[in-house]
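Lab meeting prep.
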Amino acid sequence: MKSITTPRFLFLTMAILIAAMSRLFPHIPNFTPIAAMALFGGAHFKDKVSAVLIPLIAMFISDCFIQLTTGTGFHITMFPVYFSITLITFIGMYVKRNMNVQSVMIGSLVSSVLFFMITNFAVWIAYNYDQGFNGLVSTYIMGIPFFAHTIAGDLFFNGILFGSFYFAQKRIPALIKA
C-alpha cells in the first residue's frame, strides 16, 4: 500500500468511510452505498491493494456499528456481500481506463446486477429455500422489488462519490493524479 498521508488518499478514504457510515441512518432497503464504495475505490485509488481493502474495511466498520445498534450487521450472507464488493472493485479498475459519466453509469449498473446475482444466490443457499431450479428462480423473483432500490442506490451514491471527487479535484489540485 502506498503512502496514506497524501491528500488524495485521505480524501478517497474519508469519502468511502462517510458513505459506509450512511448505512447507519434509516433508509429504503437496499438503497445503500455498498457497490458505489467499491466502484469508486477501484476507479480512484492508485494501487490495487488500497482499492480493494479500503471499501472492505469501511464496510466492516459500518457492519460493526450496525451489529452493535441493531444486531443485524453480521449475517449469514455477509461473505458473499464482501466477495461482491471485491469483484465490483475490479469493475471500478476497468472504469478507470476510460472514466466518464457513461462508463461510471454502466459500471454502476453492471455492479448492481453482479451484486443482485451473487447475494440472491447466497440467500437461496443459506436459507435452504427449495433447492431445485424453481427455488433459485423464485429467490431471484422475490428479490426483484429490492433490485430496483439497489440500482437507484448505486446510481445515487456513485453520483455523490464520483461527482464530489470530480468537483473537489477542480478546487484542490493536490487531489489530481500525479
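Slide two material, second protein:
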Amino acid sequence: SEATFTGLSSNAVVAIIGKDIRSELRTKEMVASMFVFSVLVLLVFNFTLAIDSDAALEHGPAILWIAFIFAGSLGLNRSFAAERENRSIHGLMLAPVDRSVLYFGKLVSNVLFMLVAEVCLLPLFMVFFNMNLFSELPPSAFLTFLLVMAVGTLGYCAVGTTLAAVAANTTMREVLLPVLLFPVVVPVVIGAAESTRLIFQPDPLSSPWGWIRLLAAFCVVFMVVSWLAFEYVLEE
C-alpha cells in the first residue's frame, strides 16, 4: 500500500543518514577537511586584505560565503566517492525503495555535515576579522543570519548532491564537480551573500527578506529538478 511504501521510504532515508553519520564519526574526513579548507580560505583573506572591523561588515559576507562554498565542494566530492570506491552504491541501488530516497538521504547528510563545519567556522571568522556578531547584531538579525545559512546550505547541497553523483562516475571527479557546480549555484551564492550583507549592514531602502525569498525559491526549484533527475543520474 501507499502508506507502507511511504513508511519504508522514510525508514530508508533515516537509515542512509544514520550510515553516513556513523561513517563520518569513525573517519572524520568530510567535516574535518571542510573545516580545515575553510580556515585556510579565511587566513588568506585575512592576511591579504588586512581589513578592519568596519570594513569586515562590508566584505565579511562575501568572504564567509566563499569559504562556505569552497569547503562545501570539497565535502560534496566525498559524498559519493566513498560509495563508488567501496562499491556500496550498488547495494544502495538494489534496495527495494525509490531511487529518490537515496537522494534525500544524501542531501540531509551533506546539509548536516556542511552546517557543522560552518558553525565551527563562525567563531574563527569573528576572531580573524575582529567581529562579534552576538553583540553587533540584534538577536532577530542574528537569527535571520542563521536562517540564511541554513537555506543557503540547503540550496547549495540540493544541486550539489546530484552533481556529485554525476561526477562520481568519472575519473576526474575532483576537477569536474566544481566545473559543473559553481555556474549552477550562482543564484544561491548571490542570494545568500546579498541577504547576509543586508543583515550585517542594514539598509533602510532594502530588506534581506527579498533575497531570502529568492534564495528559498531557488532551493525549491533545485530540489524538485534534482529529485526528478536523480534516478537517471545513478545509472551507469
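Talking points for slide two:
Residues 10 and 101 are 8 Å apart (CA to CA).
The two ends are 30 Å apart (CA to CA).
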